[in-house]
Write a structure and sequence with these properties.
This protein is about 75% helix and about 5% strand. The chain has 20 helices and four strands. A four-stranded parallel sheet has the order 2-1-3-4. Helix 16 (about 505-515) links the parallel strand 1 and strand 2 (about 520-525). The longest helix is centred in the last third of the chain and has 43 residues, at about 450-490.
């Protein structure tokens, strides 16, 4: 109930605060901007925003402050921390953006360029931006004052620290984005300058780039220094937010480097094969992708050291290993895709070279050759370098190798490759069959041989590179994992206590023989007395609920002195009702017990629940697919930016 009340109060406060800010800005602009003027519509709109927003803001902010004064639970709640830092960023970002617009227009004026060529706010005037800066700075200072008041009292929880950390990294990425954009515009200007001779390149590119650098460099530098100084505290150094940000910066910058690099190689190969005009044209063609790739290369080179530190962090080794796997397997997947496409285009080129006349070389075949070779030149090294690291991990002996081969990331990578290989082979085989059947029925394609050979080359790639190679890896992993697990099971003897009559012991023995055949399992009837010394060396003992509830005196003393783990299956017992497990089929309880023994034998912690629900698994799958879609959109955006 309190959470819903907080959410309502602070959400309404935030929305009404933004309404008040923009009402103040619009009201002030009606008196200073000639294009707006004191017309009734503009003035009425500004007054309406203030009339509606101000009372609602004051009422709900008073409610929020009164709630915060009730105690630490309200004052240091997560929702209040989100509001304060969200409102502060909501005023700081407009201040930065309007400062950027002012500097951008000033530089455009210095280069004798019209204001409409500015990146943002080309239709505004200087008073519009100064008013927005003043109003947002005024409200931002008030929000910052309240934040500092909350920080004056040592917080009893990590809510403020967590949201502050998130806000800092947001500003780091924000400033870094402007820095990268500024370098992009400057490099684009310098390289296109050679093509258009002196004075032909739009100076607005340079002005826009310098404006982004003037704002982006100080913002990124100051906030990043604050982040670096905070790393002396363990929670900051080991935070999940830091690891995710470093991971995404390195991953997206690495992907952003690969696409422009392929374009540059394509241009250079085309020039080497005869598509060469002038040096200015060559530099201009290289300049667009270089303007994208060079700043991203700087980002990747700078942050990869911090990312590799998180890989080997002593405080969180498992999480670091997970990020390392994700990083290299995603790069390997990107390299594999580029390699596959390069080989596919190369095979198509060779087939076209055999089928087509030489007179078409300059128009058709050269472009396909350069595209295939550039894709291979970029994708193959990335795939081999990334895959070699992961293959080396999987080739290790002992527990490290077992965990590498059994990791979810590796399994996902291999099964995705198998999935694409099977679907691709099925589609291409179906297409070849379609062409051949169509020819047999008397309706052959005019270029039948060319089509069939091209489809067969794709079939070879799908069946060999994706399906065959990765299937062999998966089988090898499974074989080695099974052997390793069998060795672990063989070192974990288990004793089953039972009565002479009953089906309990046969059920347990059959389940263990079926699932863990190498595990030493001994069965002892309590009527024969206590287990001998050999049986007492077992690592775990399994007993039904009837024996656990009412053991004989000898068995009770033996169980008390037993050094291993005792696993009681809640079977029926006279005058006993088990809070959990009562009424379940014995076969289900045996499966759960077997799962626990397997976890113990393999060195894992005993899971407290019986695994994820199917709904959770579906959510995880959709999460992975959504992440892949986002990555694809980013890659296509980089391609569009480089080609623009």
């Amino acid at each position: 109930m309190k959470t819903i009340r907080r959410l309502y109060t602070y959400l309404i406060t935030l929305i009404s605060l933004e309404v008040v800010i923009w009402g103040m800005i619009r009201l002030a602009r009606t008196f200073t901007n000639p294009s707006v003027g004191l017309d009734a519509s503009s003035l009425a709109g500004a007054l309406a925003l203030l009339l509606v927003g101000l009372p609602i803001f004051l009422l709900h902010w008073w409610m929020a402050q009164r709630q915060a004064a009730e105690g630490e639970e309200e004052r240091f709640s997560l929702i209040r921390a989100l509001f304060l830092y969200g409102a502060f960023l909501g005023t700081l970002v407009p201040v930065i953006q309007n400062a950027l617009v002012l500097i951008n227009r000033l530089l455009l004026s210095a280069f004798h360029q019209p204001p409409y060529r500015a990146i943002f706010g080309g239709e505004q005037i200087w008073s519009d931006n100064l008013i927005a800066i003043f109003m947002n700075a005024l409200i931002g200072a008030y929000i910052l004052y309240n934040l500092r008041k909350d920080w004056d009292t040592p917080p009893p929880n990590a809510n403020l620290a967590n949201i502050r950390r998130l806000a800092r990294y947001f500003l780091v990425v924000y400033g870094l984005g402007m820095l990268v954009g500024g370098v992009h515009e400057v490099i684009r200007y310098l390289f296109s300058f050679a093509k258009t001779i002196v004075g032909g390149t739009p100076p607005s590119w340079l002005a826009n780039g310098l404006a982004l650098l003037v704002i982006g460099i100080p913002l990124w530098y100051v906030i990043w220094r604050i982040v670096q100084r905070s790393l002396q505290h363990l929670p900051e150094r080991t935070s999940l937010t830091r690891q995710i940000i470093l991971f995404l910066l390195c991953l997206f910058s690495a992907v952003g480097i690969l696409v422009p690099l392929g374009m540059i190689v394509d241009v250079l190969l085309g020039a080497a094969l005869g598509d060469f005009q002038t040096l200015g044209t060559l530099l201009a063609d290289i300049g667009d992708p270089l303007a994208v790739g060079l700043p991203l290369l700087g980002v990747w080179f700078y942050y990869r050291g911090g990312l590799h530190q998180t890989f080997g962090a002593d405080e969180l080794p498992k999480r670091g290993a997970l990020f390392r796997k994700l990083y290299y397997y995603i790069l390997a997947a990107m390299g594999l895709i580029a390699t596959f496409l390069g080989l596919q285009m190369l095979f198509a080129f060779l087939i076209d070279l055999l089928m087509e006349s030489v007179s078409q070389w300059d128009v058709y075949l050269r472009e396909r050759l350069t595209a295939s070779l550039s894709s291979l030149a970029v994708g193959l090294p990335i795939w081999l370098l990334s895959w070699r690291k992961m293959a080396a991990d999987a080739a290790q002996e002992g527990e490290a190798g077992d965990r590498a081969r059994g990791s979810l990331v590796r399994k996902t990578y291999l099964y995705l490759a198998l999935f694409v290989g099977v679907i691709g082979a099925m589609v291409t085989a179906g297409y070849v069959s379609f062409l051949l059947f169509k020819a047999l029925l008397g309706d052959a394609e005019p270029n039948l041989l060319d089509e069939v050979l091209t489809a067969l080359s794709s079939l070879i790639l799908f069946g060999g590179l994706l399906l065959g190679y990765h299937l062999s890896l998966l089988r090898s992993d499974n074989k080695r994992a099974q052997q390793s697990l069998s060795d672990l099971h063989a070192q974990f003897p288990v004793l089953v206590l039972t009565a002479e009559e009953g089906a309990f012991a046969p059920q347990v023995a059959a389940a263990f023989q079926r699932e863990m055949p190498t595990l030493p399992l001994a069965v002892h009837a309590i009527e024969a007395g206590v287990p001998d010394e050999t049986m007492s060396q077992a690592r775990a003992v399994i007993l039904p609920g009837s024996i656990a509830a009412e053991p004989t005196e000898a068995i009770r003393v033996w169980l008390k002195n037993f050094s291993g783990l005792r696993l009681a299956i809640p079977t029926e017992a006279a005058s006993w009702h088990w809070v959990f497990g009562s009424g379940y089929p014995t076969s289900d309880l045996v499966k759960r017990t077997l799962k626990i023994v397997r976890e113990l034998a393999e060195g894992d912690e005993i899971s407290s629940r019986g695994g994820r629900s199917p709904f959770q698994n579906v959510l995880y799958v959709f999460g992975v697919l959504f992440g892949i879609q986002i990555l694809f959109v980013i890659v296509m955006s980089l391609i569009s930016l480089a080609m623009d």
